[in-house]
Recover the amino acids of this structure.
């Protein structure tokens, strides 16, 4: 069985790096998901729990992950586009894995 969690973990760590610029709390939260995938190892159920928790980021209301903006001194940082792209990729990959693609 192919392990696709490595791709998800890479996306999570990349997002954590981008978030570190102006959102350190969110950076830590996202990085923890990547760490949990490592800790899950070959345990499919544990990996599925992480994937579900990643998708939970997208169900939050105001002030949630979808509302995060990278800004400094009232100006949106150029890295915002990268964060937006990563959020989309994270959602797509997590949805794909939860829908039954091999973990």
């Amino acid at each position: 069985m192919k392990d696709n969690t490595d791709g998800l973990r890479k996306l999570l760590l990349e997002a954590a790096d981008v978030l570190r610029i102006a959102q350190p709390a969110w950076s830590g939260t996202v990085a923890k998901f990547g760490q949990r995938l490592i800790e899950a190892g070959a345990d499919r159920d544990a990996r599925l729990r992480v994937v579900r928790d990643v998708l939970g980021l997208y169900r939050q209301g105001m002030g949630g992950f979808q509302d995060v903006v990278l800004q400094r001194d009232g100006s949106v940082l150029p890295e915002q586009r990268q964060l937006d792209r990563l959020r989309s990729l994270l959602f797509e990959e997590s949805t794909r894995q939860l829908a039954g693609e091999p973990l």
